[in-house]
Amino acid sequence: MRCNVCGNEYDEEVCPVCGRDTRDASRVTVLSRAEKDDFDGITIDQSDRSDDDRQQYDRPGFGRIYVEQVSLGGGGLLSKLLIAVFFLFILFVALPLAVLLMMIGMVIWFFRR
Questions:
Q1: Separation between Cα atoms, residue 67 and residue 56, nearest integer Å
Q2: Does the keyword Transmembrane apply (predicted)?
């Protein structure tokens, strides 16, 4: 077992270096959000997410980087096709049409000036 105070490895009920009783180590407290962000040790995540949903990377000078994975749910093929059609419509129809209308508006504004 590793002592929570001094980090010493030991097998007794009391740490031989600092005298900490292992029975006190069973008390668990929940960290606040600020404490959790500043803490460098291992914590128990109380959210409903599994460890596969969120990954955390510590980069010196940049702080913590969290990577979230978003699932589209367990929907069938039809729902995924509808989402794909929606995004393709935006990409190939709505955006080019908006750019074309802005260009026409700029040409009209230029000649009316």
A1: 6
A2: yes
Predicted confidence at residue 95, as pLDDT, reads 97
What are the DSSP E strand ranges found in the chain?
54-59, 63-68
Hey, where are the domains in the chain?
A: 73-113
Which amino acid appears at position 75 of this protein? G
What does pLDDT average to in each consecutive run of 10 residues of the chain (113 residues)?
74 79 63 76 57 61 70 75 94 97 96 91
DSSP structural state of residue 38: H
Euclidean distance between CA atoms 99 and 65, whole angstroms: 35
- C-alpha of 74 from chain center: 21
Q: What is the structure's pLDDT at 16?
A: 81
pTM more than 0.70: no
- Terminal alpha carbon distance of the chain: 81
Residue type, 29: T
User: What does the alpha-carbon distance between residue 76 and residue 82 come to, in Å, rounded to a whole number?
Assistant: 10
